[in-house]
Amino acid sequence: MEQEVKVAIYGATGYTGVELLNILSKHPRVKIVSLTSQSYAGRRLREVFPFFEGSLGDRFLEEEPSEDYHLAFLCLPHETSLELVPRLLEYGKRVIDLSGAYRINNKAVYPEYYGFEHSYPHLLERAVYGLPEVFREKIKEAQLVANPGCYPTSIILAVYPLLKAGVKVDKIVATSLSGVSGAGRKTALHFHFPEMFGDLFAYSLDRHRHVPEIESIIREVGGMEVSLRFSPVVVPISKGMLSSLSVFCERFDVLEAYLETYREEPFVRVVSEPPHVKHVLNTNLCLLYPFWDDKVGCLQVVSVIDNLGKGASSQAVQNFNLMMGFEEEMGLSKVPNFP
């Protein structure tokens, strides 16, 4: 059998951690050697999640890894990843960080949007933004990959063809609807079932932490400053994300630009009808529906992803495959659980 890569998952019992476990447990080139969990340390994985069986289900959750490994997936709070990453890099580990601690290379953003000073600006320069369709070659050589946020993934993939083609963009108005799992597994009153059921609401309209992340990538790739009006909305579904963008820009050949950009991409598809969230659930797919609105004079794009999949854990595995030199599609699904 071909050699397996030993991996550790930090924060294995949160939503992104469980999603990672589900994918990696079926990956033919992965050996999961350590699972950490501050909430469930000392318990077997199957005691917390009975659907994990065999040797994986029998594995004890730990506060710190007890076995050596090559690569770490960090499914941790931003502040925890901030302090852990330097230590892991010093030990020679490769790291895929699913938090926002290393996504933005400007340390001045963190106090305003994340509530902490960034103590390791030299590592911000080393971190590679883990969006394979844009930074594939850099990801292959990276020691530290900052896995993108779910909202930025859906929005950046929706505008990347414009950036690649050099289309001048004046402003972007984006409304993104997300399932409740995007808020993580922690409890909160407004996500309590009687409060959330039959409801939907916008939040962080004036200062969402994903705005500077999106703007920084647009700046880096497109070489321009673009005004972004971003409105995130929570809807009463467990997972899935739909972003609707109005992009005010110079007119261009929309369909040709999108088809050309994503023609060879395994996980991004340009579709001829507005896609549904159910078309991507439990996959690593992003479906895009672009069209030019003659009446308003702007580009309209609908983008759908699974916020725990392409928006988090399956994208992390896509990055892992690139870093290890494996086939990019290895272990990743393109067929949703439908209906």
Any key phrases for this structure?
Dihydrodipicolinate Reductase, domain 2, Rossmann fold, 6-stranded parallel sheet, alpha/beta, 13 strands, 339 residues, 7-stranded mixed sheet, 12 helices
Secondary structure elements and pairings:
Elements lengths: L4 E6 L4 H10 L5 E7 L8 H4 L5 H5 L12 E4 L3 H13 L3 E4 L11 H5 L7 H6 L1 E2 L2 H10 L2 E3 L3 H16 L3 E10 L14 H4 L4 E2 L7 H13 L4 E8 L6 E9 L4 H9 L5 E3 L15 E8 L4 E8 L7 H12 L15
Parallel strand pairs: 1-2, 1-3, 3-4, 4-6, 5-6, 7-9, 11-12
Antiparallel strand pairs: 7-10, 8-9, 10-13, 12-13
What does this structure look like?
- With 339 residues, the chain is of the alpha/beta class.
- It is 32% helix and 22% strand.
- It folds into two domains: 5-147 and 312-324, Rossmann fold, CATH 3.40.50; 150-305, 2-Layer Sandwich (Dihydrodipicolinate Reductase, domain 2), CATH 3.30.360.10.
- It has helices at 15-24, 45-48, 54-58, 78-90, 109-113, 121-126, 132-141, 150-165, 193-196, 210-222, 254-262, 313-324; strands at 5-10, 30-36, 71-74, 94-97, 128-129, 144-146, 169-178, 201-202, 227-234, 241-249, 268-270, 286-293, 298-305.
- It has a seven-stranded mixed sheet, with helices on one face. The protein has a six-stranded parallel sheet with strand order 2-1-3-4-6-5, sandwiched between helices.
- A hairpin with a 4-residue loop joins strand 12 (286-293) and strand 13 (298-305).
- Helix 1 (15-24) packs across helix 12.
- The radius of gyration is 20 Å and the shape is globular.
- The two termini are 37 Å apart.
- The model has no long low-confidence stretch (mean pLDDT 96).
